Please model this.
Amino acid sequence: MKVSVEGWGLADVNQPMCPSRGVLEHVTSRWGVLVLAALLDRPYRFSELRRTVGGVSEKMLAQTLRTLERDGFVHREAQPVIPPRVDYSLTALGVEAAEQVWALARWTEQQVGAVRAAREAYDEARA
Model:
């Protein structure tokens, strides 16, 4: 489905230079999906979010949050306290994106057995 995007022309994810590809990459990256999903529950401080999203490095989490904030999915709120406190939450656009990608993530959890069986059948046929 092609959508007109002001200043960009028609958005068509199948076209190589379409700006929607970058957005798709951001929200469907491994860390993008997990950060968006975690923030569906509630706002988090950076350290809480890092513990919740197991396996993400501090650098990768910071990069993912900056990207999602720039794209309008995440709101960053710095509290004027000592020590500094920064809370991350989803914007309305972020909630919509998070619900979409989290549904896909949950579906993949349910299909791991079927995928494993398909891989084994494929590998066996190729051996």
The mean pLDDT is 92. The first helix runs from residue 20 to 28.
